[in-house]
Amino acid sequence: MEQRKNWFVSINRPEDPAHPTPFEQEHTPVLEMPEEVKYGESVSVTMRVGQQPHPYQNEHHIQFIELFQNDLYLVHIPFIPVVTRPEVTMTLVFKEGGMLRVVSRCNLHGLWETTRLLKVVQ
Ligand SMILES: [Fe+2]
Fold first, then answer.
1. Any domain includes 95
2. Within a domain: residue 2?
3. N or C: which end of the chain has fewer CB within 10 A?
4. Does a structural domain hold residue 1?
5. What is the DSSP string of 13-31?
6. What spacing in Å lies between the alpha carbon of 56 and ligand 1's midpoint?
7. Amino acid 89: pLDDT
8. Cα–Cα distance measured from residue 112 to residue 7, given in angstroms and rounded to the nearest whole number
9. Which domain holds residue 68?
């Protein structure tokens, strides 16, 4: 199935999130940060692809990773093959909660996303 699907017509997610296949684990972005943060305080956020390392060869690699909060576009990190690995840690400051969405793109297997609800407390 993974070889026949047209990966570029939609945003991809594991079909069964509780039991992702090894292929899905390679492509699904991972977001590492607390589930709850304090209003206005700096928080360290790590994004990477994926739960298992994705290839980083010229022929097959992750091109970028992006982070959104609700409809707000927060960051876009491009990667080049071979040299860079699709993992980045940054400091963010949140003043409101909402849905966080990490989107990454594999040059062969399209867009993949992970979402998580963020809670901001006073
Ligand atoms: Fe891929």
1. yes
2. no
3. C
4. no
5. --SSTTS--HHHHHHSEEE
6. 9
7. 98
8. 9
9. 7-121
Which structure tokens are listed for 109?
A: 């297997």
Answer whether residue 38 is part of any domain: yes
pLDDT tens column, 50-83:
999 999 999 999 999 999 999 999 999 999 999 9
Residue type (1 letter), 91: T
Q: What is the rounded average pLDDT of the residues 29-45?
A: 97
The beta-strand segments (E) located in the chain are 29-32, 36-38, 42-49, 62-69, 72-78, 87-93, 98-106, 110-121
The domain spanning residue 114 has which CATH number?
2.60.40.730
Is the whole model's pTM more than 0.85, yes or no? yes
Ligand 1 centre from 110 Cα, in Å?
8
Q: Is residue 70 within 8 Å of 56, Cβ to Cβ?
A: no
Residue 62 CA to ligand 1 centre (angstroms): 7
pLDDT (0 to 100) of residue 3: 61
Sheet with 42-49: strands ordered across: 29-32, 42-49, 87-93
Domain count, the chain: 1
Q: Distance, CA 76 to ligand 1 centroid (Å)?
A: 19
